Amino acid sequence: MNRRDLLKLITAATGTALIGGNALLAGCTTQNNKPQLSFTDEDVRLLDEVAEVILPRTDTPGAKDAEVGAFMRVFVTDCYTAEEQAVFHAGLVQLRERCQSELGENFMALTGEQRQSLLQALDAEAKAQVAAGGSHYFTMIKQLTLFGFFTSEVGGTQVLRHIAIPGRYEGCMPYEEGDRAWATR
Amino acid sequence: MANNHYDAIVVGSGISGGWAAKELTEKGLKVLLLERGRNIEHVKDYKNATKEVWDYPHRNRPTQQMKEDHPVLKRDFVLNEETQGMWANEQENPYVEEKRFDWYRGYHVGGRSLLWGRHSYRLSPLDFTANEREGIAIDWPIRYEDMAPWYDYVERFAGISGTREGLPHLPDGQFLPPIELNCVEKDVAARIKKSYGGKRHLINARVANITQPKPEQGRVNCQYRNKCWLGCPFGAYFSTQSSTLPAAMKTGNLTLRPFSIVSQVLYDKDKKRARGVEVIDAETNETYEFTADIIFLNASSFNSTWILMNSATDIWPGGLGSSSGELGHNVMDHHFRCGAGGEIEGYMDKYYFGRRPAGFYIPRFRNLGDERRNYVRGFGYQGSASRQGWDRNVAELGVGAELKQSLSEPGKWTIGMTAFGEMLPHHDNRIYLDSKVKDKWGLPVLAMNVEIRQNEIDMRKDMTQDAIEILEAGGATNVSGSDWGYSPGMGIHEMGTARMGRDPKTSVLNGFNQVWDAPNVFVTDGACMTSASCVNPSLTYMALTARAVDHAVKELQKRNL
């Protein structure tokens, strides 16, 4: 991370900055907090399955291969504020309730199609909420899925490309559609 | 105590202290190099140098615990997992913010030479005459011509890559081949040149990353990993560890003593000379005295001044060098965090290979020649163009295979840049000792009272607006500019507080960085700066240090010190 990257983060316009990331705004303060909520192994399995719908295994590995659920447990517990953790954990409760009330099953029992359409709906709701200046727990789950996956070794080397020691810089390399992106700039 | 005498003592092992140690030892002096923090050995102690983002449990993001431990660091981007432990412990080393001041300190061997941005530009003839011409503060006691041979000298050793541009306000130097611009940056540069009739330039950043090996120093050329801040196992960027410390060690004349907090310069009022320094061992709390013929203070701008303020207080209540009334005053930084970003259409069949440690630079173009803005001085931009990665927003895609496929490919080209502006020296921007607050070793701490003033506030409007205009002229679309807010210190270029000058009544140091009141004490870090220019300052500290050592040793030989 250097100052150029900082600028990219600021200008990335990704809707909302990564929750739990660096404080980017001058004077941004965080509340002192101790984690009061913890994840069960079942929570982690649920998050793995949700993440797999967002980034499924195709001809390349998916979210479960990168153990994104376990990453979310660590990141939310250590990097989120107490308030953010509360929103995230309440989100898991809401997600479970919604599965029951709409589909009469828990998420694990849903078919692939049911999972897909449920999460598409949640994604649309989250986008609408954020666009209206609000927030939604699904934004957190999706962010952490993308972040956790593409910064994992599986995501960074098998879905994106990474060369540990490039040895040279070429500023104008041919690119063909479908070529993978570099894991880091 | 017989073994505690050296020809010279250097306090601080960062960029300027490393240079002082190298130059003094190569001239045959026995040198004690004191560093307040722990040792970091080149390569061996770069514990994260070969780690990737997935090797960190939080993927290099700060935890809440880290934020709690670093109430200052957390304000900006530097708090992360990979450089944890490379910044000063804020609990052990408090300071007082009468006004907000973000102070980023590297308390270990190498100091911030391991953590610097590496942009290396010369101050220009314009910079050295600006104060005099505009009647601001005091005149520099030196001119560009005094510095030019020393810039040549330090550039050849440090290894600066860049291009010769023939710009009078950004003098060329002894450059290694530049780090290439990418194809978008090259085309944007050409459009800017055309739009502004050759008055504004987008050029390769000039950085202390070597593009050719330096076998005589055991340094390999840049491998394009962009992990400089983790310590470079190839020695590809200039740091104390990669460059000056090995050179000093090779002479057999250097003694390096880590964990050595210098609490004061010991002053002999009869001889009107310093006779040594008092050191507190940071681990044992024991106090030692070391004596020497000459002393170089290179403890970083504010800490060199802190040492002076804490020295010879029986003669001058404000400390050694305070007789002018300027010690601790005229704090400067580079004010930044104004800039713009945009998209570049096309080039979708172009990409790049390797990760550069630098991008482009747009040298100052304001208030040159006859132009007079509603502020004085100017600013430069640092930036780069690249293709978006997975963290871009793909609004139209929800969840599933299509999203994954899309994010596994690079996105559009974007370009962004941020300005670094010159801050004027102002007497009321100051630091002072606050003896009510003590650090871990019972020493009084610094209090900060610094703010940007009207000249900087006016300049910031141009810094943002010009960024938008230049990027649009360069062909960018959807350009948006912003002032993201700045607090003094964020530039990590703190300068001033013991300025050079021509008159002991208005300056702390003379034209060779000697303390007027103790001519065998030299201050050659950022504290000495009489004005700030808008270019990154480290190269100038290197040149000033080499020049001051040359003078010191000549004076010593003439028995003048």
Descriptive report:
- The complex is a heterodimer of chains A (185) and B (561).
- Chain A is built from 7 helices and 1 strand; from the N terminus they run H-H-H-H-H-H-H-E.
- Chain A has 185 residues and is mostly helical.
- In chain A, helix 2 (41-54) crosses helix 3, helix 2 crosses helix 6 and helix 3 (68-79) packs across helix 6 (137-150).
- Mean pLDDT of chain A is 86; it is low at 6-15 and 23-33.
- Chain B has 561 residues and is an alpha/beta fold.
- Chain B is built from 10 helices and 20 strands.
- In chain B, strand 9 and strand 10 (287-297) form a beta hairpin.
- The radius of gyration of chain B is 23 Å and the shape is globular.
Question: Strands, helices and their partners?
Answer:
The complex is a heterodimer of chains A (185) and B (561).
Chain A: H1 3-11, H2 41-54, H3 68-79, H4 82-103, H5 112-131, H6 137-150, H7 153-159, E1 170-174
Helix pairs in contact in A: 2-3, 2-6, 3-6, 4-6, 5-6
Chain B: E1 5-11, H1 15-26, E2 31-34, H2 64-69, E3 96-97, H3 125-134, H4 144-158, E4 160-161, E5 175-176, H5 183-195, E6 203-204, H6 240-250, E7 254-257, E8 260-268, E9 273-281, E10 287-297, H7 301-309, E11 335-344, E12 350-353, E13 360-362, E14 379-387, H8 401-407, E15 413-421, E16 430-438, E17 444-449, H9 454-473, E18 477-483, E19 514-515, E20 518-523, H10 538-557
Parallel strand pairs in B: 1-2, 1-10, 2-7, 3-17, 4-5, 10-20
Antiparallel strand pairs in B: 6-13, 8-9, 9-10, 11-15, 11-18, 13-14, 14-15, 16-17, 19-20
